[in-house]
Structure formats: structure tokens, C-alpha cells
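Troubleshooting log. The previous structure file for this entry was overwritten by mistake, so regenerating from the original sequence record. Sequence copied from the archived sheet and checked twice against the printout by T.R.
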Amino acid sequence: MGWMLKLKALLHDPPYKAKVIQTHYSEAEELFKIIFPNDTLEDENVNKADRLASAQSRIIVKPQFQDKKKEKEFENASQVNYNECQFIDIFSERKEPIQSPNEEKVKELFEKLKNLTFSTPEERAKFIFLFLWRFYPEIFPEIEKHPADSRAPNHSIYDHLVQTSAIVSALPKSAFLLFTIGPVQSFISKARKTSDLWAGSYMLSYLIWNSMKPLVEKFGPDIIIFPNLLRQPLVDRWLYLEVFKNSPVVNLDESKFKEWFEKWLIYEKENKSDDEKDLAKELEEKLLIANLPNRFLAVIPFDKNKSEDCKNAFEKALKDISQKVYEKIKSYSSNSNLQNDIQNQLLNHFQVYWVIMPWVSNPPNDALNDYKELFSENEVYNTINEIVNHPYYKPANVGSAYSLLLELTEKLLGARKSVRDFEPLEQLGEKCHLCGEYEVLWLLSDTSKWKGNQKQKEEDWRNKSKIEENKQLWSNLSSIAKLKQDERLCGICLTKRLFPEIIKEELKLSNEIKFPSTSEMASIGEKRKLIEEIKKEFKNEFKAFCQKIKNKNQNLNLPSSISVPKLKNDILYEIDGQFLMKETYRVDYFEKEYGIKVNESDFQNILETLKKHSINPSKYYAILQADGDNMGRWLRGKFNPKIEDTIHQKVKDALIAYSEGEDREKLQKILCSKHPASPSIHQAFSRRLSTFALEHVRKIVEDDHYGKLVYAGGDDVLAFLPIEEVLNCAYNLQKTFKDVLSPNASMSAGILIVHHKYPLYLALEEVNNAEKRTKKHYGKNGFCLRFLSRSGEQRECGGNWKLVGFINELICKFKNEEISSRFPYDYFEIVEKLYDENEKGDKGKVKEILRSELKRVFFRKVEDKEKVKEFFEEVLKWFDELETYNFANLIIISRKISGEVKV
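Regenerated output below.
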């Protein structure tokens, strides 16, 4: 495979094809010859790739004709002229006016590309291919609404060109590679600090990018079908460093590219001015979003070695990370085998699975037969079978069986993952204080002597003096690894703890990666409420307290902290929220948490300041976990529109008019079938998920709602938020998700409100369970809200997204004391009594009694009944709609939230 061949595939149609349909071959040739005047576009491999790409996405059928004259009439009747063109958004089924790039501006761009100087034609072809792949839709956004085929205007010319260039890389024998790494949830959720959580999620995203990188470098980023790599920050960084930075781009003044390139130039500078840091901020923010999933689908040549290359690249990335971890801690250890210990734990923890599925035949009879044997004759099979028998482009080819081959590939991967690889790892020593799975790293002496010597290892782990010495080495390491007092970790958890610093150096970030603590998240409302004078007074007292600590503890400082990005300019930005809480100021707490010796007199002034100004932050914060509903079904095409809704009306009319009898019945059946999955659908779907994650999620969470984003992996979101913001944030995320993806898409969420001292890894389990509970109990397109009190009491409510507005109203009514704070508890007592006593009785009758009791207790302590009379109608509406305990818990949770809200 060569870059010249890929470029020819990308240019085999002009980006304004529909506008010049009669002369599009010569138009494409003209564009190509501007940059390669002594070559030609014509190539049989490109033609074959074009036919396969067309069959994958252009689902157009044709009647069976015996009469050539009638067939010619049909061809004429089904042709769509440019002035009749439209573009159909396959996710919303909206029909939009066609958009077309300006031909002269396209030619001007090619003239600019022609003037760039390269040492070889292949080098020129590589640069221009990657430039156009990345910037065609940036410079000419119209090509994403310019149909590849005016008869089936449901996918863009850009997607068709990219599919063709991807397939030509895989010829002569193409195959799918489906590659995945894990575990995911357990790796991410084993976290004590909020930064551990981000590190776990970002590390997976970083590792999957490194896994696919050998394929991208050899065949181009277009061969990755899912996730789509266009505009992915890590891919952009690779393009800048490996392709554009050392190319003659100084002569290319195309504005969109120039703006992108200059941002990266500034970003990569070692010493940036303040203005340059601001310019680079946007890139940095996007780079730090854990956006890539833990799997990818690629089209490659059928070659097992290619998957081994991905696996080796994954393992190399892990080894490189372990080396960097070792470099940071080696001066605190006498174990020369420590790097191997870290590396072995990491390699043992992760599993890699992959399958390769060749595109087995042309025409696709083998694919149809294999699918039928595994899945029987279902709707997808029957649709593809009929399409193969009625091809518009003859003869039919394996491209038509894309969705079948993909499902077979998924089936094979599932079978492979069910056969678990297991390599026993001796874990005789003290278990990691964080994950509890792997043994604590041994910093003392060389552990290579343990290999094959079980007895020696047991002796070392039983030797009290050696164990104490190992503890002391860990204590010395505590400031480097940001450890709690007496905290000791395994290689995996230590890697996550140090990963923010490692990736900062790798990505040349301007600032250290820090995350607000759970205590800080709980205090956001209080910080927003306090006036500037009080903040200044508190900050001065806190600085004096810190100076006392330094004097008494040999210049030892309290660990630094930050708040959420929205409070970047706040006076208290770098003072952790726990220091606004009077409960923090205990002698034993500073000793246990930080190993710092203090006296009560040291913090007396701070306590007096807190009391004088009634500074009392909430002790609760929120975790939001959300994901798109039915994402697997979306990718399998279960929500695709009918084929008849994805082709031009003129084509549909011609099909019906020129078919008859049994043939007409078959064609009508095809037209009423769902459009099969296709690479163009997958590419567009993945791009929309990336747009949601990279362009919207961080803004909604951090800029609009005072939160901190942990990850946004397409449809998956995890974020920390203050309790007063979490419901509205969740609501806005799901609304934007629908706006970006499709009106038919939906998102579900789990929301946990929890005490700031509750163990983070347990809180993550709770919010994960809440999200699952949403879909199983309350129904998709909704949320489950849990309130976990410090005492251990847990309450839960949930429902569809319309419920958010009602909960917000309730919170306001409680906050403003318009309704009694006792009302929820009094009502819940009645519910418990009646439902206990009538467990097998008439629930309808009980519901009526509860309705009457609800009215009685609601108005019992309300002074201005007329003022809340209208609101009570809203209360009754939700009482009637929700299950009894769900409603009772909802009003109690609303009351609890109102008591914690500070703004």
C-alpha cells in the first residue's frame, strides 16, 4: 500500500460531484493533475475500492428487467438532477437543501498544495492525503452535506471518499479488526482521590490510541471506522508532530489550517508567555478529556501480524509508563528490580482481545451463509439477501454485507472474551491499601531473588524489621506519590497516582493536572456565597496557620489543592474546601491525614473566623454518571430509518412504477426494511459523539454548572458537581445529547449525593449502580437520584427527565420555607404505616387514602395556603404518576438537598 494510492482514492470524485455529475470523472482528474501533472487517477484498485464503498453505503435496489428498453426508461426516470438534490440526515430523517463547495475555491486550494516542495512524490502524496482527510471538512464544511449519490442522499461525499481510501489500503483481501482492552470499570473506579479517577479513565484512552497508532501510521487514520478519529485531540497532536511540523507548511496560508497549525506551534513551545498560555488553553482542555473508548474497529489487510502489532504497541506503552513511574521513585528505593515489578503488575492486570474477520467472498454468498448459520434468517439477513439479489450496481459485492460481517465480528469477539486468559501472579505480601488486589510494591532490596524462590519471598514478607523498613521507604515517598500517612500501593495504583505528572510531561502541558477534592466539591456553594471581604479575611488567617505548620514541621506544607475551573479567579481557589469546615480543625486529624503536628491554639483564630461569619459549607457533593441509551443497538442499525426514507422520492416512485407482480412485492418489502448499518453511518455517528464529548460536555459541566469533568467518552460522562447544580447539569447534558446526535436518541443518568468523607471507590460503585437502576427500574431516558447520608441512611427516587423541574420547585419551596420542612417526614411515616398494614390489601384504596393524607400534611403547617395552592396541583400530578415510595422518597430527598444548598 502506498500513500499515492490512498490519495487517488480520496480524490477519485470531486468534493462537488453532484453539481458536475456528467463530467465528474474529468473534474476529479483535473484536480489531481494540478498536484501531480504527470500522473493519472485511473487505477483498478481504486475502482474496486469505490465499488465496495458504494455497496456499503448506497442501499439502492433495482427491478429485474427482461426488456432492455424498459430498463433504460427506469434509469432515466430514477436519475436525480442537481436542482432536485437534497441531503437526508439519516439520524433525524430531516431533508435539507444540498450544500456544495465552490469549485474555484477548491481549485485554488489545490494550486496552493501544488506549490509545496517535497523530496519525493510519495512524501507529497502522504502530506496531501492527511491534509485533505483532516481539513477537507474544515475548509469546505459543505462537503458534509453534499451527497455522494443524489439517488441515495443519506451520506456525504466526504464519507464516501474516506471509505474508499480506507478500503484501498486493505486490498486485495480486506478484513475487519476489532480490538479491545480491559478491564474498564474496575480499573477506573479503584480510586481514593479524584485525580486517581481521572488518571484511570485517561490512561485507558491514551492506551487505546497507542494500540491503534501502528495501523494509523502505516495505513492512515481513515482506516479506523469506530471511533472516528477526525478532530480527535491526540490524533491532531500526532498529525502536527509527525506530519505537518516538519513539512513545508510555511507556504500554505489556508486560513483554517494556518489557525490550527499556529495553535499547535504555540502549544508545543517550551516557555510560553501568559498570552500564549491562554491561546493554548483550548487545545490543552480538549487534550485532557478522556474521549476514546477502550475498543476500536478497523478495516485492514487480512494479516494476523497487524493485530499483533497493535498488541505489542499496547504493551510497549505500558512498559514506557512503568519506566517513567520507576524514574520518579527510584531514588527512594533500593530495589533494582522495581521497574519489572511495576511492569509485571500492569501487564498482568490488563487483558487484550482481538478478532480479525476477512471479507470472505465477492459476491457475498459466503457471508450470507455464515451469518444464517449463526443467527438464522432474521430481518437484517433477509434485507441484505434481497439487496444482493436486486443490486443497482451490478454485480453485487461483499460491501453489501457490511452489517452482517460486522455482527459476525462482534460475535467472535464475545466468544474470544469468554475464554479468559489467566496467568497466576504470586501475591504473598501486604495487599495494596487502595485496590486490595495486588501486593504493595517492595522498595527494599532486589526482588529478582524471589524468582523461583518462594521461600525467600515468604521470609522477607514475614520479617518484621524488613516490613518496617519498607514502610519507612514508603513514608519517604509520600510527598512524591501524594500518599496519605502510612498509605502503600501496588504498581497499578501507584501508576495511576503518578500518571497526571507523567502525562503532563508527555503532552507538554502548561500546568500541573490537579483535581478538586470531594471536600472542595462540597464547599463550592459556600465559596460562591461568601463576599470578598470575608474571603480575604479567611485567606489571611489560613496563610498564618500554614506558616505556623511550616515552622513547627521543618517547613512541611499542607498539600496544595485547587477548586473547580469556574472559580479560577476566586480568592479561595487554592484553599481546599475542607479548611472551611470546622470539623477539620482537630489535632488528631492533621496527625493522621498529613503527619503534621499542631496544637489547638494554632488554629484557634481560624475557628473564630468561621464562627464569626457563619461559614458552614455543605458536607455533601454530587457525582453524575450518564450514558447514551441503546448505543449498541444504534451501532447495529436498530434505529436506522426505513430504506424508503433514505432515498430520493423520485427513485422510490420509479422503483414502484417499473416493477410489478412478485418483483414489486419484494421491492416494497425492501423499501420498508430498516437501512442496514454502514461505515458512513458509523463514521457520522462517531463524529457526533465526539462533537458532544469534546465541544459540549466540558462546557456544560464546568463553565455552566461549577463542576469538574472526569471523562466524556462519547456517550459516557462522569463528573463531580455541587449538589445545587447536579440536576440541571444532568438535564442539560441529556438535552444537548439529543440535539447533537438525534431527536430519537436519549440519555440516562445515575446521580449520587454523598458525604465528602465517604470513600470515593464506594461512592463510585453507588453511582454506577444508580445508573443501572435507572434503566432497569425507572426506564431509559431518565435518572435515578440517590442521597446517601453520613449515618448510612440511603434514599432513592427517579423517573423521566420532566421530573427535574418538579424537584427544583420543591427544593425552592423548602428553601424559602413556603412549605413545612416536616411535611416529607410526616407523610413518609403515614406511607410506611399504611403500606405495612395493607401489604396484600387494596392498593387502589390505599392510594386514595394517601392522597387525602398528602393534602392534610402538606397544608397543615403552611401559613399562606393560597400561595402554594397552585403548586399543590403539581404535587398531586406527580403523586398520581409516580410509585408511592418513589414519590415519598422524592420529597424527602428534595428537603435534604434544600438544607444543603448554599446559593
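The longest strand covers residues 174-182. Archived copy saved in two places this time.
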